[in-house]
Amino acid sequence: MARFVTLAPAAMTWEGPTTGFEDAALDHAKELDKFLADVERRAFRIAQFGLRDVDDALDVVQDAMLKLVRHYAARPSAEWRPLFYRILQNGVRDVQRRRALRKRLMGWLPGPKHDAEGTARDPMEDAADPGPDGPQRLMQAEAIERLEALLRALPARQREAFMLRNLEGLDVAETALAMRCSEGSVKTHYSRAVHSLRAQLGEVW
Amino acid sequence: MPAQNRTDLETRSRALFDASVAAVDMRVQSRLNVARHAALDAVAGSRWRRHRMPMLTAAAGVAAAALIAVALWSTWPPGTPSTPIGAADGRAGLEDLDIVVASGSDDALDPMRDDVDFYAWVAAGADRTAADDHG
């Protein structure tokens, strides 16, 4: 009887490696969940800027989440953000390439969903009412539509630099990691993007 | 980028983008939630496999080995030597050769050995016949 009394507390207070591992994994999963929850809507809008299609944008975001979690979850959390946007941009480019190839090969098929120029659905149609009503909302929708159109007209690297630096708020080093280029290249692409946008929006804005 | 360093264009475009992010509708938000949970579930499953599967594999290996051992032991005929059949055959051949060599005679190796008396009798008979002929 005394033996059981002696052994019981030890058994109850023992914390083996499995328990410690599960706690760490749980914390890690929570941190990852929080990160993804923070970036998912912005990532969706970034993808929608490039693809002009809700379903394609959602697919690209989901794929980016899965790849980040599978391949980079063990990396320091500070690296998740640029890595996630790198994966996202690669996904957007892949879809754009597939569309271009499909357009070349099967251009005779009607496909308004995949028409990247002109007839695709306006992303603002899928957006809920953000608050302001009437004319203000309309002006905002027009402004974002104009910005999207100008961003699409930019060279791909300038567009990426502008979106990551300004819209997503990544710093130069993070943007360079996301774009897989030097920080100097980021500054150059970004400066040219701002110059080009200002030349076209300056009068309006 | 620090807000104070932004130009009007940068500030306004950022504000527009933020507004469009805030305006993402509930249907899209719901699908994003599902996508996020699917990604996290996928990695949770792979982590479980990575850490649990080696233990399960080892346990399954031990169980399989034990099962094979029991099956072999139960199906082995009683009284059968435990040595492999081929080895037993080879050993028996060597033992037979030892018996032959150890016998100290070459009877087994000389087929003419049993007929010596017969040949001696034939020869003796031939000698007698020759003596009778000369005599």
pLDDT < 50 runs, ≥5 residues of chain B: 102-109
Number of helices of chain A: 8
- How many individual domains of chain A? 2
Largest sheet properties of chain A = none
What is the overall silhouette of chain A?
globular
Q: Could you give a short account of the major beta sheet of chain B? A: none
Which percent band covers the strand fraction of chain B?
under 5%
Helix content of chain B: over 70%
Q: Can you give the mean pLDDT of chain A?
A: 81
Q: What is the CATH level 1 assignment of the largest domain in chain A?
A: Mainly Alpha
User: What's the shape of chain B?
Assistant: rod-shaped
Mean pLDDT of chain B: 72
Order of helices and strands of chain B: HHHH
Explain how this protein is built:
The complex is a heterodimer of chains A (205) and B (135). Chain A is mostly helical. Chain A folds into two domains: 21-111, Rna Polymerase Sigma Factor, Chain: A; 133-205, Winged helix-like DNA-binding domain superfamily/Winged helix DNA-binding domain (Arc Repressor Mutant, subunit A, Orthogonal Bundle), CATH 1.10.10. Chain A has helices at residues 2-13, 17-51, 54-72, 77-105, 134-153, 156-167, 172-179, 183-201. The longest helix of chain A is centred in the first third of the chain and has 35 residues, at 17-51. The termini of chain A are far apart. Chain B is built from four helices and no strands. Residues 102-109 of chain B have low confidence and may be disordered. Chain B is an all-alpha fold. Chain B is rod-shaped, with a radius of gyration of 49 Å.
